[in-house]
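Researcher: Please translate sequence to structure tokens.
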Amino acid sequence: MNHRTTTRVSLTALLGTAVTDPQGHVRGKLKDVAVATGAEAGQVAGLVLKTRDGLWIVPSQDVRETPAGTLELKSPEMLIPLQDQGNYLYLAQDLVDRQIIDIHGRKVVRVNDVDLEWMGDGAKHLLRVAEVEVGLRGAFRRVFKGMLPRASLESLSRKFKERGIPWQFVDVIEVDPARRVKLRIEYERLAEMHPSDLAEILEDLAPAERDAVFTSLDEEVAADTLEEVDPKLQLSLLEKLDEEKIADIVEEMDPGAAADLLAELPEDRSDAILEEMEPEERHEVEELLEFDEHSAAGAMTTDFVYLGTDATVSHVGPALRSFDGDIETVTEIYLLDDKRVLRGAVPLARLVMAQPDARLMVLAEARVLSCPADMKQIDLAEMFDKYNLHALPVVDTQGRMVGVVTADHVISFLREKL
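Model: Translation complete:
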């Protein structure tokens, strides 16, 4: 009865290995390892051989590792000329010494080596990628490759602490959009990350890789991420995008953050982006652009949940479901009269035990705090600190509510002051 065994080998050790036919004649040396992407990601599709006649590829299942450490072809007829290099991801060419995204660790790392595994026994051997090595172990192998015998190199490298990332947690970055599509490389898992983590990843990437990742994100994820990055990096990320694409992203942003972004752009480009936006979103942003950026109005968002003064608890659910902004920022329901004058605010926590027919004005805070639109941000920060606020309504000179300043904007302001 055959038992399945697994033998691990590093890419560095494998490269340059002689490849023989069943009669022991050398047919070439291993040049690279071609890996599948998409649904079959991590499976080795073939081994690339360098011969006197050029580059050839052979399916991995038609090669076995001999006890002597060489590679043996099961049948020389399986060798075919390597023609289209765009069909596969090549470990030595496309991965080693390049940046990748560690999805599990939520960080950018550089690949020093790749560990592969021979799977199976007897006449059948399958090769797969086990993990990428990002620590000193892989660096040591590459530096001393050719200076030490293979067995000694592997033995000494094991003295270094292993820092490997399992292949399933690796996102390979391909800067060529056409090749990325051909290889079926997607960044769907990045969309599941917190925008702050994704922003840090973009900040750590080299410019070409950064652009490749950002342009692959959908508009909503790109908008959330853009709000988290440094203003200078915001401009860099948008530099190569056309106005229509930028407008699609800006429409998904918080109106206040969108206004701050457009205010940093040259006026002609900002106007062109506004022209591409939908009328409702454009109007919100244009209103905010008129305010002093150092005032409360300049720091506020126009996305907030409000109801009329005659509303009941039963009206809250539909209002929250129809809210287009970031629902996680909602801490209160604001009560406005027919002229949009602020008359009250009801904390969400107070609604949990309330009856559906209870009037919101009865549940509202006895005294609702607000600030004028022209309040300076330093005074705004002091008000947040004094009253331990999560959010603060902004009103105009007639008492009409025009927006809300949230705590994260105040925190950002204070960080800039440090």
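Researcher: Any highlights?
Model: The mean pLDDT is 88.
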